[in-house]
Amino acid sequence: MHLLLDRDPDGSVVLGAGTTGTPAGAGPDGGAARVDPGDLPATVADLEADQHPRWTWGDTNDWYPALLGGGVRVDRAHDLRLAHRILRLASGTATSALATAPPSTWDSLAPALAGVTRADTVRAPQAESLFDAPTPAPRDADRPDVAAELAAQLDAVAGSTAPGRLRFLLAAESAGALVAAEMHHAGLPWRTDVHDAILTAVLGPRPAEGRRPARLEALADQIRTTLDAPPSLNPDSHPDLLRAMEYAGVGARSLRKWELELIDHPVVAPLLEYKNLYRLWTANGWHWLDRWVDDGRFRTEYVVGGVVTGRWSSTGGGALQLPRSVRGAVQADPGWVLVVADAAQLEPRVLAAMAHDESMAEAGSTGDMYEGIVASGAVESRELAKVGMLGAMYGGTTGASAQVLPRLARAYPRAMGMVEDAARTGERGGVVSTWLGRTSPPPGQEWTAAQSSALDDGAADGAASQARSTARSWGRFTRNFVVQGTAAEWALCWMASIRRRLWALGPDAAPPGLAPAPFTDRPHLVFFVHDEVVVHAPAALADVVAAEVRAAAEEAGRLLFGDFPVRFPLTVAAVQAYDDAK
DNA sequence: GCTTTGTGCCAC
DNA sequence: AAACGTGGCACAAAGC
């Protein structure tokens, strides 16, 4: 059952207030109870053990980090902010009171940051002068009413066109919020010394502040010499560099890597190397290390549902774009291993399942799905199968991808038909939904303006083609939305299952640490990127953990797609360093 | 001086 | 100078 957590304006914690079916014992008489914030972890731990409730709160990051800090892990949650966002847009709940109500504070809530508690925010020094009006305290009416919101959400789900799927989606989204907070708490093991060695090997030793590393300096000189440019030429200035290149007759219109690679000129090699190393230095160099790695852990802020499709985004340190070149610095603690697992060809498999395309699922039944497509005779090569499938899911219209599309459409009419339908719906301005019912946003101003101006009397030349182009672009978005979004749902289920299974393994025999460890004394998730997870585990449990991660993938497929014969094979490796995997 | 925009590359 | 989806981020240049 749901157990609500809320705060009074004075900061005291209210437990179970207004919860429908409040469990006996939450408060003295089965109703609301007031808890001193300092006692919250202990109180939550007791209730978790006794009643195993679904902890229901406005935003997981407002509550869970402090509980984790107090050594308390919870099993289930309901994140009202995340659920609200889903239900407001979902086609399945379009007629509900929740979806038809005017926008409320729930619609304007920004995700809280796990590293920043509300108390920190309140205590933060306020920039105010004598002339500034004091910041007004939030009016009572603006305070989100958690009990009313929960009731509205449960009502919307119950009256929806597919209550089971939506309930599942909300549970998965909330489980994701728990995972995200726990991964932030645990951090990704990061060897600063190894990272520094990686940088030093290719850039030279860390330079003085404000100076280029030696290798970059040498390359800059080489670029200047090759271009016959003065020492004042700054290779970081695009206009200056392009001008110097034009003067030297290089013939490049931009500084993009792919374009430079097409050019035959002696400056290309040193310039490409410069750009490559410059990127490493600025994006993941020593400054990055100083800023984001603390005490052997990299902590980012995972933003659950940060992408419209339901994928996560992250803020801080570019966690979801960690370049391969620094992944060697991600290393397990002594006596531990990293179990790295990624789902092979996740999106095409998801597409096959949601379209109930048995032929396509069959192509993925033995292992590599692209090889399976080749084996079925649809296309000649793995590479062609891959670019063809990606083109189908992205809406590619050119090149090899477009060329094989007709053959894929003949071999897999159901799957290809589904993404085509999604594209057509988007072009018309309609919305599409994922397998569990997350719905795409309606098209925005650009689409509407383009379509209406094409219909105007005396429409400008090009208005019609502009309208078509905008419509197609939105069609590519909706086409991709259904696949990417459903893949994100699979990933949420996968992680929720992994989380539960790892917890069930029980604590390691390791001696208790000084700080309370809510879960880091047993195998735990430390990283996630769309279709890939990393588990930090005691070395002795490597095989057990690998098996659980595989079992979780099967479970996720079964929970989402039932008996439909689609497989979700993984690549799994237990390694010391992240870059040892594959 | 500040913020916004453009460029380009990284990840899936 | 992108084709073909979703993002984050750093830097220089442009705008205010």
Protein described:
It is a single chain. This protein folds into 4 domains: 2-120 and 145-186, no CATH class; 193-289, no CATH class; 302-345 and 488-580, 2-Layer Sandwich (Alpha-Beta Plaits), CATH 3.30.70.370; 347-482, DNA polymerase, domain 1 (Orthogonal Bundle), CATH 1.10.150. Helix 8 crosses helix 22 and helix 20 crosses helix 22 (463-504). With 582 residues, it is of the alpha+beta class. The protein has 23 helices and 14 strands. The chain has a 5-stranded mixed sheet with strand order 3-2-1-4-5, with helices on both faces. A 4-stranded antiparallel sheet has the order 12-13-11-14. A 3-stranded antiparallel sheet has the order 6-8-7. The chain binds a DNA duplex (12 and 16 nucleotides) through helix 12, helix 13, strand 10, helix 18 and helix 19.
Question: Which SSEs are present, and which pair or pack?
Answer:
Blueprint: E1 2-7, E2 13-15, E3 33-35, H1 40-51, E4 54-57, H2 60-69, E5 76-79, H3 80-89, H4 97-100, H5 105-108, H6 118-123, H7 146-158, H8 163-186, E6 188-189, H9 192-203, H10 214-227, H11 238-247, H12 257-260, H13 268-284, H14 286-292, E7 293-294, E8 297-298, E9 301-303, E10 313-315, E11 336-343, H15 346-354, H16 358-363, H17 369-375, H18 382-394, H19 399-411, H20 413-427, H21 445-455, H22 463-504, E12 524-528, E13 532-538, H23 542-561, E14 570-575
The protein binds a DNA duplex (12 and 16 nucleotides) through helix 12, helix 13, strand 10, helix 18 and helix 19.
